[in-house]
Amino acid sequence: MLTSLHINNFRGLRDLKIEPLKRVNLITGQNNTGKTGVLEALVLLLSEAAPNQNLRNQLPNLFRTVGGDYHENYWKWLFFGKDVSKHIEIKGSFDNAKELQFHVKPNGWRAGEQQPAQLRHSGQIGNSPCFLSGNGDSAGLKPAVFSTHPSNPTQDAVDYQRVVLKRRKKQVEKLLREIEPRLEAVEALRIGDQNSSPSLIYADLGLSEMIPVTQLGQGFNRLLDIYSEIVVEDAKVLLIDEIENGLHHSVMPVIWKGLFLAAKEFDVQIFATTHSWECILAADEAARAGEKYDLALIRLDRVKEDIKATVIDEKSLSTAKELQWEMR
Prior knowledge:
Elements: E1 2-10, E2 13-18, E3 24-29, H1 35-46, H2 70-73, E4 88-94, E5 99-104, E6 120-125, E7 128-134, E8 143-146, H3 153-165, H4 169-179, E9 185-189, E10 200-204, E11 211-212, H5 218-233, E12 237-240, H6 252-265, E13 269-273, H7 277-288, E14 295-303, E15 306-312, H8 314-323
Parallel strand pairs: 3-13, 3-14, 8-12, 12-13
Antiparallel strand pairs: 1-2, 1-4, 4-5, 5-7, 6-7, 9-10, 10-11, 14-15
Helix pairs in contact: 3-5, 4-6, 5-6, 6-7
């Protein structure tokens, strides 16, 4: 599990350090303070360079949709101030004493220039070579990304079929039953013409007929999507941008209850961004319901030309609620 994160010269983040990190980390702050940038930095640090596992080159469209020339509209903007003379460095410390640094340096390290110890090449993003340094070959924590884009019901069914193939169906159903106690089973079924009708996911609630899960509400569907992705991708870190997007505030307690269950059941670490005070309150309530308070609320603020992080602990958040301080 990541215990701290240090980001240099990436996006609008000249020098940002966040610590301590917890099992569940909720990032808040005003617009343009780098919340999504922190998630992008985690993708770069945690992703493997292997082509079949590489999220790095998918970065332009992971959290937002970028059109046109990717170099002009995305890659060159990764460098703070578009200054490629200062290389990007993203450093993570882990609870197993491992430290790993991810570097992007367009021209590499020149002769006579001091370079990080244990440096090795790790593919490229856009036109820029990437490097890793530190005391590990990789983070060993595969990330799964959830953006503001809505999920596709047909793809959701395909993912759930892969959950079944991995023999994790009962595990996912058990977690979903905490959210919907009437649930007996979840199945991916093809109804109608077998050649033209796509599979969709149906739920057995003990009624006379199974019903499409799309009828069970936003919270249930979002959690089914998240649980399936964790199982299918063997993910150990969840990166969720604007977690409240498309959801009514009334379902946030359900979402956070389900996420804390997932963190424990699947042994995953969660990073999510939000603009919503209701979302913060729901996360805090879910954290307090557990045996251990394992939530870090991370507020990003612009201080002159820099972004600074403040980690708000359980006691400070209680005070903020009592005094109705603005925490978003």
